[in-house]
Amino acid sequence: MATLSLDPVIQINVILTPVAAVRSGFNLGLIIGSSSIINTSDRVVTYTSLAEMLEAGFKTTDAEYLAASIYFAQNPSPTKVAIGVKGAEETALQAVTACREANSEWYACYIVGAEKADIVAVAPYIEAISPESVLFFTTKDADVLTAAEGNIFATLKDAGYTRTLGVYSTKNDHAACGVMGYAMGANTGDPGSAYTLRNKTIINLQSEPLTAAQVNAIEGNNGNVQVNRGVYFDLFEPGLTAAGRYFDDIINLDMLVNGIKRNVMDTLQLWPKIPQTEPGVTALVGAINDPLEDAVTTGYIAPGIWRGGPFVSLSKGDALPTGYLVMTEPLIDQSDADRAARKAPKIYIAITPAGAIESVAISLNVSI
């Protein structure tokens, strides 16, 4: 179902310190192909299993089915997949645009058979659409192994795209769809369910027999790959989008912003009137606190130290005992124009993400 953005009613500006329509979930991946099983008038159909896709008419040799196979193979396994169709005369960008207009619930997107030009065309669209989404793609271009000028990873890195994640694989044309499947399956929202992509094993994806220099070339341009380390471990790494942002940071922040928008909109809708008084502001702050607490429960936010610069009443080094702090502009300081326009006083949120440990340095001292 298509829907309009809440941005005209609720605007959340995310400010990242150094160191918006809403959706119901962040666990649905979209696979776009050219199969005739789905027509362009339907555009996007959601399935809960491979068996359901077969019942709908897909064959085990269809590209969409093969992509969905590695998507559903992950552990935890996603509960559903959206299949979108690209019209015979459409570009990849036109197909993705049409799929977003038809369905706003999918968070992650994968285009079957996408070429470099397709990814370069779609990436800026994904960067800007609402609700927020992430593009996954697979490449087997040999030039990424030498960090050659103009390779796909370098091109996207130079453009600074935070919402495109690429995977190098010569073993599976749909490797990135497996990563997307893990990301959607692991994102349950349960207590302690926050996850990272690095050091996970993407099921049904063979590790690439690369040299250290080749891996460094890929990862130096914020590409991703599954490799074998220490014989026993097939590991996906590093879990970065093209701009060098960790995917888990992006999806968790998207979930938090989505939750705040939803809760504040519910409050505006359900209350007969929210007065421009301290109790009214308190009601809005309470609506904001709930998704912040959810983020603490999942493990995205944790008690910590504010490492950013001065922010409202916060200074660098201040403790956030709950992992977050909601601050508001004093009502007495609100401008007459904002009060006449029935705007809430400005609300400011500071959070300290829990972060993640992905490597360990150990000093072992032996006395002989």
At a glance:
The chain is of the alpha/beta class and 368 residues long.
Task: Provide structural commentary.
The protein folds into two domains: 29-186 and 198-238; 250-351, no CATH class. The chain has an eight-stranded mixed beta sheet with strand order 2-3-1-4-5-6-7-8, with helices on both faces. It is globular. Helix 3 runs parallel beside helix 4 (116-128) and helix 8 (247-270) packs antiparallel against helix 9 (278-298). The model is unreliable at 16-20 (pLDDT under 50). The longest helix has 24 residues, at 247-270. The chain is built from ten helices and twelve strands. The chain has 368 residues and is of the alpha/beta class.
State which percent range the strand residues make up: 5-15%
Shape: globular
Mean pLDDT: 94
Structurally, how many domains make up the residues? 2
Q: What proportion of the residues is helical, as a percent range? A: 25-40%
Global structural class: alpha/beta
Q: How can the largest sheet be summarized?
A: 8 strands, mixed
Q: Order of strands side by side in the largest beta sheet?
A: 2-3-1-4-5-6-7-8
Uncertain spans: 16-20
Please give the number of β-strands. Answer: 12
Radius of gyration: 22 Å
CA-to-CA gap between the ends?
70 Å
Tally of individual helices: 10
User: What is the string of SSEs from the N terminus onward?
Assistant: EEHHEHEHEHEHHEEHHEEEHE
